């Protein structure tokens, strides 16, 4: 087994500056939470905040924002928390299934998968 390479999370000094030294991310943002801008960027706004507002004119998942900005998800969650606190974004959280019984039957999913593979 080959050892895994460490993930490059960026220059620590830059990440410290971007987050204002904060390391606690807002846990309310799941990777698939959709973010939508409620306002346009304003002059003097932090560049990462402005870029998020530009990206989120239409719903965009948190993980997509992180990929587009080239920042770790934790840093993006901190930035999103700032924007949410000021009312500049709204977050659309994914709906959870009401219960396990409401989920599709695994046998049906297997049949669909086999059908798709046969296409």
UniProtKB/TrEMBL annotation:
It comes from the Bacteria. Residues 1-20 are annotated as: Disordered. InterPro entries: DUF742. Residues 1-14 have a biased composition (Basic and acidic residues). Transmembrane segments: none annotated. Signal peptide: none annotated. PANTHER family: DUF742 DOMAIN-CONTAINING PROTEIN (PTHR36221:SF1). This is DUF742 domain-containing protein.
């Amino acid at each position: 087994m080959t050892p895994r390479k460490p993930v490059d999370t960026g220059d620590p000094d830059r990440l410290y500056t971007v987050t204002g030294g904060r390391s606690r991310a807002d846990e309310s943002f799941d990777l698939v939470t959709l973010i939508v801008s409620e306002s346009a960027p304003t002059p003097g706004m932090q560049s990462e905040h402005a870029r998020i507002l530009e990206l989120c004119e239409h719903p965009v998942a948190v993980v997509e924002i992180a990929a587009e900005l080239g920042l770790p998800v934790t840093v993006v969650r901190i930035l999103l928390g700032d924007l949410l606190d000021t009312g500049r974004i709204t977050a659309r959280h994914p709906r959870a299934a009401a219960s396990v019984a409401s989920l599709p039957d695994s046998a049906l999913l297997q049949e669909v998968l086999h059908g798709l593979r046969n296409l």
